[in-house]
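INFO worker-7 received task bundle
INFO bundle size: 2
INFO processing item 0
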Amino acid sequence: MTINCAIIDDEPLAAGLLKSYVEKTSFLQLIGCYGSAIEAMKELRDHPAQLLFLDIQMPELSGIEFARVLPPNTKIIFTTAFQQYAVEGYKVNALDYLLKPISYDDFMKSANKAVEWFTIVQKQQAYATDRFMFIKSDYKLFRVNLDDILYIEGLKDYIRIYLQDGSRVMSLMNMKKLEDYLPHPEFLRAHRSYIVHMTKAESIDRFRIVYGDQFIPVSDSYKEEVQQFIDIHTLV
């Protein structure tokens, strides 16, 4: 995977250091380096970057202000000498926050977070379009069609996928990772131990999701999101 990125920083030395880091990182492709958010705004409109290394304290337009007008698919790693901006940075959904002076080790940790995020998005798009995924089980890769899944149960370090035909697929996998990859809100976390395929639910009985003779509980932690899905699809 190659991620197109840009640097926006009004300090030439800081921008030059970041540029050197990007150039020696194989999965990053630098498409622009700008001395202000105003300059970047003009260029990025026609040549958008997937990832921005964005300074916060800049004249005319701060990094925080610029971040608020960016499209949601443009991800941000803030760079600043002032730690007090960290909270503001996360309010605009930044991937990470780098405190100057920035070491290459810290830079790589942030860059790897970007790779993880874009990998998840890429897989989400593939699963939503192709409607299947491969699951490793017993040293084999099994094709699982999303439309065949009823629900998924978490069992410590394993997951068990329950299919419409009554079969099951078990795999060594993290529930949170699987939840991130599956199309949302078609698949929702209903409980610490369950991800449910909402479009396959036969009925909702006292806040339990019913598939045949199986009743999947909805815990308080996930009740609001499940209720929103139910409300949208309920004819009253």
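INFO item 0 finished
INFO processing item 1
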Amino acid sequence: MQTIVVATGNAHKVAEYRELLKGQKVELNSLLDYPGFPGVEETGKTFRENASIKALAACRYCDAPAFADDSGLEVEALNGRPGIYSSRYAPTDPERIAKLLKELEGKENRRARFVCVIAIAINGEVIECFEGEVRGKIIDAPRGTNGFGYDPVFQPDGFDKTFAELTGDEKNAISHRAMAYRKAVEFIEDEMSCLDDDF
């Protein structure tokens, strides 16, 4: 069984990826399994750059194939903010949501999109990146208790529920992370013959 490291210590993200990997012949580790990991400074200016930085660092430290995602929320009325700073917009999820809603007060345009870029690193180099997105709008007040981050205020197009009101299966069918992940797995199956049997 192939071991792959997801370069995150975010337990919520790890749980989502484990759900997405159901049925695959792969053992998923995370940085939670490598407590000595020195950490990585996200110095990139794009989701792609930050995902690549994290994937490469994990691949080299853990001596295993690794992938990393960098994801965030881009809001049209805020010129794309919080963007790559989504997780650093404020100290906690409730504070991040409160800050976002405060900045959107009085603005008619509530359009937004979640973006996720996954970078794959094997043998000490980044070999490919994949992007997924889901479009929707920011609602006026949080709803729902599932998910994390900005999920309670993001309502995807075609739904009358927020991400935080959807079940895990419903969210994984449409989420930006799931879309990027599916592209990554397809690439590995098509291009990385050495890993074909493990996926």
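INFO item 1 finished
INFO post-check item 1: Residues 195-199 have pLDDT under 50 and may be disordered.
INFO post-check item 1: The two ends are 9 Å apart (CA to CA).
INFO worker-7 idle
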